[in-house]
Design brief:
A: 114 residues, mainly beta, seven-stranded mixed β-sheet, 11 strands, globular, B: 110 residues
Chain lengths: 114, 110
Amino acid sequence: QVQLQESGPGLVKPSQTLSLSCAVSGGSISSAPYYWSWIRQYPGKGLEWIGYMSSSGSTRYNPSLKSRVTISRDTSKNQFSLEMISVTAADTAVYYCARTWDFWGQGILVTVSS
Amino acid sequence: DSVMTQTPLSLSVTPGQPASISCKSSQSLLHSDGNTYLYWYLQKPGQSPQLLVYEVSKRFSGVPDRFSGSGSGTDFTLKIGRVEAEDVGVYYCMQSTQFPTFGQGTRLEI
């Protein structure tokens, strides 16, 4: 069974960059036909898809976040990452990584505050 | 964007009774490849969402057969044949025919 685990800082200052990683076990992020996603859940519980990366490394992003987000990967570590620039308090959320769309990580709370 | 609207927003069910949740999309979810990418998730308290149903009506591995999905085009339904205490949580529909969007969630209580 595929398992995913998010890691990264739980507190980021406004205007700085949010950086998270997702370690994958039980499956390779380079194996077709899977995609690997980042999703976030706001404190009010709404869910928002951020973007995904294919097994070949191509990416697709939510148009509302595209200018601020980059998803990358390290195949040697079997992990993929999220970078979001210029964060504000509105980016405070639980961030999930997932194998699109069956297995999800446990999530990591990221708070944007000075 | 496909806006996903769920009803009801909350549901109180007696154990052993059925339950039904509706999900309506602002656009048809039929993809040009012939598939309809509509999913149902359950988020139990303190946990991440877990997949129940994919592509409208296919139950994910290990999901009890009391859960069933149906629908087409813009109208979809998740039915729970006989609700059990472990079914408590928030149910979300999600589409990925266009860029992925989620419904606002339906809270099920016993």
